[in-house]
């Protein structure tokens, strides 16, 4: 095992399954033998506000918070939230983002417009950028609500945790009635 700590940030809006995704990621890292620390910051998460989850794993981790500019992977569930969180990444970091735009209240009320070209802007700043159509792949797996698991699959290949541990974590954290769909969604995400 590497002595280095891996810093993963999960960002999006409430209701996207970010907290479950961070639990599955943490569980997979623990099963792989890593020390894991996790923390969440909830905006008005039940009303579609910002949600940020920090997951850090390695041989020994002392703090659950990823210091600004030290994130290894930014795992974005929504494009604007992903773009807002780029400052948390270190230079040369990895961005895996869902190709999804959820308009905040200010846009819905006509006070603002949703920024155009976010994916292109992110790509111009981070060469290791993967844009995933999480909703489409989740629908292909059997339920559009499994987009968070598709995205976990997409980042899983960029982390030092074997597929077997991810699948065990899914079995532990996902309700039995949704497990098969979530396994399919995870594997579709791994193919990205």
Describe this structure in words.
By secondary structure, the protein is an alpha/beta fold. The chain has one domain: Pyruvate-ferredoxin Oxidoreductase, domain 3. 40% of the residues lie in helices and 24% in strands. It has helices at 18-31, 79-84, 105-108, 118-125, 134-141, 147-156, 163-173, 176-190; strands at 6-13, 35-42, 50-58, 71-76, 89-98, 128-132. It has a six-stranded mixed sheet with strand order 2-3-1-4-5-6, with helices on both faces. β2 and β3 form a beta hairpin. The two termini are 26 Å apart. The mean pLDDT is 92.
Secondary structure elements and pairings:
Blueprint: E1 6-13, H1 18-31, E2 35-42, E3 50-58, E4 71-76, H2 79-84, E5 89-98, H3 105-108, H4 118-125, E6 128-132, H5 134-141, H6 147-156, H7 163-173, H8 176-190
Parallel strand pairs: 1-4, 4-5, 5-6
Antiparallel strand pairs: 1-3, 2-3
Helix pairs in contact: 1-7, 5-6, 5-8, 6-8
Rg over CA atoms: 16 Å
Number of strands: 6
Low-confidence stretches: none
Mean pLDDT, rounded to whole units? 92
* Number of separate structural domains: 1
| Morphology call | globular
Looking at CATH, the homologous superfamily is Pyruvate-ferredoxin oxidoreductase, PFOR, domain III
CATH class identity: Alpha Beta
Determine the N-to-C terminus distance: 26 Å
Report strand %: 15-25%
Q: Write the CATH architecture name.
A: 3-Layer(aba) Sandwich
Short account of what is shown:
With 192 residues, this protein is of the alpha/beta class. It has helices at residues 18-31, 79-84, 105-108, 118-125, 134-141, 147-156, 163-173, 176-190, and strands spanning 6-13, 35-42, 50-58, 71-76, 89-98, 128-132.
């Amino acid at each position: 095992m590497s002595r280095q700590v891996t810093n993963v940030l999960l960002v999006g809006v409430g209701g996207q399954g970010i907290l479950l995704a961070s639990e599955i990621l943490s569980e997979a890292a623990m099963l792989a033998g890593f020390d894991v620390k996790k923390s969440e910051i909830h905006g008005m998460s039940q009303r579609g506000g910002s949600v940020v989850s920090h997951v850090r794993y390695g041989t020994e981790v002392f703090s659950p918070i990823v210091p600004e500019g030290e994130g290894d992977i930014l795992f974005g569930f929504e494009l604007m939230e992903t773009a807002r969180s780029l400052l948390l990444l270190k230079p040369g970091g990895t961005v895996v983002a869902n190709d999804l735009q959820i308009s905040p209240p200010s846009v819905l009320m006509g006070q603002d417009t949703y920024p155009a070209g976010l994916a292109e802007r992110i790509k111009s700043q981070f060469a290791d950028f993967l844009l995933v159509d999480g909703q489409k792949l989740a629908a292909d797996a059997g339920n559009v609500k499994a987009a968070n698991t598709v995205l976990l699959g997409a980042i899983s290949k960029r982390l030092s945790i074997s597929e077997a541990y991810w699948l065990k974590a899914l079995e532990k954290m996902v309700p039995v009635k949704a497990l098969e769909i979530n396994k399919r969604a995870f594997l579709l995400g791994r193919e990205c």
